[in-house]
Amino acid sequence: MPVFLHLKAKPNARANQLLVAPDGTLTVRLKAPAQDGKANICLLAYLAQVFGVSRTAVTLVSGHTAPFKKVEISGLDEAAVLAIVQQAVANPG
Q1: Domains along the chain?
Q2: Sign of the torsion formed by the C-alpha atoms of 75, 4, 10 and 42
Q3: Partners of 6 in the beta sheet?
Q4: Measured between alpha carbons, how far is 38 from 51 in angstroms, rounded to an integer?
Q5: What is the pTM of this model?
């Protein structure tokens, strides 16, 4: 069963980074610019790397031209996704 993430993408950052606000909101900083879909491609590739799944297991469901996005991750359950997010936040970079 796929897991859906609701997040905010911030393009033109110095490095790709996954951040979690105190209220649990996910933000992904991306090196790529927000033009011609480059930030979306970067977002999906980065999330695939963070969650250890293939690039095809990560799909942008909505928010193609907006900063707030809904992303589907296949091949992991919700507990695994939460554990990876917590680990990524605890060990940035």
Answers
A1: 3-90 (3.30.1200.10)
A2: positive
A3: 70
A4: 20
A5: 0.93
Q: What is the CA radius of gyration of the chain?
A: 12
Confidence of residue 92 (pLDDT cuts 50, 70, 90): low
Burial class (CB in 10 A: 0-12, 13-18, 19+), 52: exposed
CB 77 within 8 A of CB 3: yes
Q: What does the chain come to in residues?
A: 93
Q: Which residue type is seen at 5?
A: L
The tally of CA atoms less than 13 A away on the side-chain side of residue 44 is 19
Q: In what order do the strands lie in the sheet with 68-73?
A: 17-20, 26-29, 3-10, 68-73, 58-62
